[in-house]
Specification:
alpha+beta, 9-stranded mixed β-sheet, two-stranded antiparallel ribbon, 17 helices, membrane
Length: 515
């Protein structure tokens, strides 16, 4: 999970002045200062791994040019020559057949995004600022210092007045039971899936692969089993349930589904991403554990993927790349988002003061690996040349930061918090329109964890901005610590699907967010 980079001036539960600041030490590091060469090499390794395919392109072009320049006499001479070289014909044919067979067997199967859906909770679950603070006070669990802290977090969070919290949190006192948590999970997952199946006309029995991710709620039977039971999915379905992987787990789930679609032919995969709030609300007074209460809200998504060639005609997107970065080998990164109990024995998710710096390091690694896969050659040469000069001659020049706006038309940055969006906008030199979808998703729906990138994509579609061959970069952060990217290409001019999350409010956005 990424909680937005909000820092506190009082880390304990005792009394004292409370403030909310964004410290320089907790901002994303300036990417202009350092780039690790080994991650550049990793990105180029991915590029070279597809070199065989790339080499065939100029070979085919040369052969085509030569054939186009031949006349009838040349063709007649070639035929006479081949009649007396039967062995050569057989050898060449065998090589051609072998080469085509190897290519067909080893090339990755395309993965298409047929459609997706996002859950929108009913209006009675909305949690405007006033109601949120009133309920927090009435629970009797928070002291005055903690209440004031939560008020300041909300004011600076970037969240609007129409985000949702689960039904159990609207009760006074709150009722975070196992039954209530199951009810929340069912409403979100089934709500998103009902829309998906309706919009795609795909029968649940046709689903061959199911991947569900939810970090903090992992009951028995699992969430994936709940879906299998609800929709009576077939008995040989390949189902997976990912837990504890934070807000970037949605991209991980897509990557897993992609790998499964390479193995199992002619089938569909469904990816369900959500987070469960009911049993994970923190009722203590430790400041570093109160921030999730203020940012996380109800939400979920369901995505239908296919490896069927016939689905290309109706699919919205094609998956181009998935790049995953894991910093869990570093102890600070591993513990920067950590579920634990406070001194009073109350469970919550604690955020380290190093969170923003660690997120920045993971992001830098991820985009350095992604760059060679997506950037134009001109940008790669400028970047690589300045990097080599700096490494070899220890020059005092700053590395060239590639312009990712040349590689992508749209950006879906995980809506973890306003500070993260601000820092990515600055460090990647993006324009306000590039982060508009992230800011408006945070404002309208809050931090919906791993599903937030799909609300953002739905926003871009609802605004009518998605054109054929546009490329979309989805990037998310998660506990562990992880930074994961997915790159999609639009197969047509994409319009918003029915029952979308922005269906009745898109004309009100963008809104001005107070700083």
């Amino acid at each position: 999970m990424n909680q937005g980079g909000v820092a506190t001036t009082n880390g304990g539960s005792g009394s004292g002045s409370v403030g909310v600041q964004i410290h320089q030490s907790r901002r994303l590091p300036d990417f202009l200062q350092s780039v690790n060469l080994k991650y550049v090499k990793l990105g180029y390794h991915y590029l070279i791994s597809n070199l065989l395919t790339l080499c065939f392109i100029p070979l085919i072009a040369v052969i085509s040019i030569e054939v186009s320049q031949m006349n009838l006499d040349d063709l007649r001479q070639l035929w006479v020559h081949l009649q007396y070289n039967l062995a050569s014909i057989i050898i060449c044919s065998a090589i051609l057949v072998f080469g085509l067979t190897v290519y067909i067997m080893t090339r990755p199967r395309p993965v298409y995004l047929v459609n997706y859906s996002c859950y929108r909770a009913p209006d009675h679950l909305k949690a405007p600022y006033g109601r949120f603070m009133d309920h927090s006070k009435l629970t009797g669990d928070f002291d005055e210092s903690s209440l004031e802290f939560q008020r300041k977090i909300l004011e600076r969070s970037g969240l609007g007045e129409e985000t949702y919290v689960p039904k159990a949190m609207h009760n006074i006192p709150p009722t975070p039971s196992m039954a209530a948590a199951r009810e929340e999970a069912e409403e979100v997952m089934f709500g998103a899936l009902d829309i998906l199946f309706h919009n795609t006309n795909v029968k649940p029995k046709d689903i061959g692969i199911l991947v569900v991710n939810c970090s903090l709620f992992n009951p028995t039977p699992s969430l994936s089993a709940m879906i299998v039971n609800k929709y009576k999915l077939r008995g040989n379905i390949r189902s997976f349930n990912l837990g504890g992987m934070g807000c970037s787990a949605g991209v991980i789930a897509v990557d897993l589904a992609k790998d499964m679609l390479q193995v199992h032919r002619n089938t569909y995969a469904v990816v369900v991403s959500t987070e469960n709030i009911t049993q994970n609300w923190y009722f203590g007074n430790k400041k570093s554990m109160l921030i999730p209460n203020c940012l996380f809200r109800v939400g979920g998504s369901a995505v239908l993927l296919s490896n069927k060639s016939k689905d290309r005609r109706r699919a919205k997107y094609k998956l181009i790349h998935v790049v995953r970065t894991h910093r869990g080998a570093d102890d600070k990164a591993f513990r920067c988002v950590y579920q634990e109990q406070d001194d009073a024995g109350k469970t919550g998710v604690s955020l380290s003061k190093d969170l923003m710096a660690i997120a920045g390091g993971a992001l830098k690694t991820n985009i350095t690996t992604l760059g060679p896969l997506v950037l134009p050659i001109s940008e790669q040469l400028l970047f690589f040349t300045t990097l080599v000069v700096k490494k070899l001659f220890n020059a005092g020049i700053k590395p060239y930061i590639p312009d990712f706006k040349l590689a992508f038309d749209h950006f879906c940055i995980h809506a973890g918090g306003r500070a993260v969006i601000d820092e990515l906008e600055k460090n990647l030199q993006l324009l306000p329109i590039h982060v508009e979808a992230s800011r408006m998703t945070l404002h309208r729906f809050g931090n919906t964890s791993s599903s937030s990138i799909w609300y953002e994509l739905a926003y871009i579609e609802a605004k009518g901005r998605m054109r054929k061959r546009n490329r979309v970069w989805q990037i998310a952060f998660g506990s562990g610590f992880k930074c994961n990217s997915a790159v999609w290409e639009a197969l047509r001019n994409v319009k918003s699907s029915s029952n979308g999350p922005w269906e009745d409010c898109i004309d009100m956005y963008p809104v001005k967010i107070n700083t």
